[in-house]
Design goal:
Layout: E1 2-7, H1 14-19, E2 30-35, E3 38-43, H2 54-68, E4 73-75, H3 85-94, H4 96-106, E5 109-117, H5 120-127, H6 147-181, E6 188-193, E7 199-208, H7 212-225, E8 230-237
Antiparallel strand pairs: 1-3, 1-4, 2-3, 5-7, 5-8, 6-7
């Protein structure tokens, strides 16, 4: 099973020394499979014995986190299994150029997550856009009902649509300000809007390690500017979400 793909260390004895104190799934020893200047960290495992539960995935992530302290790496998805070291070496050769590009992109960088929460109902109330009073019929009125009930329904739906559009516009404005504030951090960002009614922004950033303190300062400043929002920063992590290579 492949845990990660690393850029070769300047000291050839560094990786074996790190791996000697670690164990993989089923307490298996780690070893290296290399091609040119890249190395896959692997351990022997019976595919039938793999169990995808929280404990296994946490242990797997823990190994990657430990390796990340000392090496530039690309995390590999849990459960990535090949039949032999020869197959792994061939895979490294086939994908060598793309792997190199990705290692260069993430070298010296870390990933952070930023979630922005709020009380969505309180936020909507602050926009002062309220739906019309509900019509007597709970469902969508049929063509046989009188025109006033139909108009009530249309006005209600239009007000709801305008309210959702206003919320989305507000979220876009917060994202714009976050992006502008992070200009000095030189962050590569990915944003997901309205991940849930309470989680209005779910973002990921790839930044240089030395910019970590500046990122934390920026998030603290944003929290002060938006007291009704709750900014939650997590990390640093290995670059799980910034690897653009599909292993073939």
């Amino acid at each position: 099973m492949i845990y990660s793909i690393l850029k070769a260390a300047e000291d050839p004895g560094q990786l074996p020394a790190v791996l000697s104190g670690m164990r993989g799934i089923s307490n298996a020893d780690f070893h290296e499979v290399s091609y040119d200047d890249i190395t896959a960290v692997v351990c022997d495992v019976q595919k039938a014995s793999l169990v995808t539960d929280r404990s296994a995935t946490m242990d797997y992530a823990g190994v990657i986190d430990s390796l990340f302290k000392d090496f530039t790496l690309l995390p590999v998805r849990f459960g990535s299994v090949m039949e032999s070291e020869g197959e792994i070496r061939n895979m490294l050769e086939r994908n060598h150029i793309e792997i190199q590009k990705n290692l260069l992109k993430v070298e010296g960088k870390v990933e952070f997550g930023l979630k922005v929460f709020c009380d969505t109902e309180k936020l909507k109330a602050g926009f002062n856009i309220k739906p019309e009073p509900e019509a007597k019929s709970a469902g969508k009125p049929g063509t046989g009902q009188n025109n006033s009930v139909y108009m009530d329904y249309v006005k209600k739906k239009l007000a709801e649509y305008r309210l959702e559009e206003t919320v989305l516009s507000y979220v876009n404005s917060v994202i714009k300000e976050i992006t502008e504030c992070l200009t000095g951090v030189e962050a590569t960002g990915k944003f997901k809007k309205m991940a849930s009614p309470a989680n209005i922004i779910d973002a990921l950033f790839l930044i240089k390690k030395e910019m970590t303190a500046e990122l934390i300062r920026v998030v603290k400043d944003l929290q002060t500017r938006y007291p009704d929002l709750n900014f939650m920063l997590t990390g640093p992590w290995p670059p799980y979400n910034f690897v653009d290579v599909t292993i073939s």
